[in-house]
Amino acid sequence: MSHHIVEVKDLRYTYPDGNAALHGVSFRITHGESVAVVGANGAGKSTLLLHLNGCLIPEAGSVRIGDFPLNKKTLHHVRRTVGMIFQDPDDQLFMPLVHDDVAFGPLNLGLPPEEVELRVNDALATVGASHLKNRPPYRLSGGEKRSVAIASVLSMSPSILVMDEPTSNLDPRGRRQLINLLCTFHHTIIIATHDLDMVLDVCSRTIVLNEGRVLADGPTFDILADDDILDSSRLEKPLRLRVCDFCNRQLNAG
Fold it and tell me: Could you tell me if 82 and 56 are in contact, meaning their C-beta atoms sit under 8 angstroms apart?
């Protein structure tokens, strides 16, 4: 299962405008792990994720996906292994019909038409979007676009699923459907998000980034219950882990 492993060593990246986004980030994720990457705005989460499927190439340090070090020569192999779902679904949906967007990846793999159709139908069914198959993406709601974007990645059968703020702009029902879907994915999942309650549901491990560095890395509950870590990284404790003032008053009154 080495193709499911993600290994980042001393990763550093500075944007052309001089903004240093990552300062020596290191971690190793093994097969089947569900890992959240959390931190305040500007912590480096999106920059890190863009390195995991080759949208960005390390300027210092290294990224290894399975047996392949990430570089320009290995991009094809890395992108077949890592399915990336961007924060804005419009960045992924560009074809006239939903069917065409979901079929785009498998077609570029050179799969036969029968296999492509099977993958399209399976991926849309998995995200509950079969009824959108012949709709133009620009006519979809934000939640529907999110579902189709996920389907367009699932149709590639990735070993590693990488998602940037997957619950943003979803209504409560759409958010719950997404969480249920992610809980059924048995390969490696890496999610950058501010939705810490969703992290509790989906991710067994959490990496905290702060100003481009790893501040903490460990079991999700331990990380999200640690007030010092949350304060240092400018994060708020998930709602379900907060002490209810009303309940405390009732207990004290009793």
Answer: no
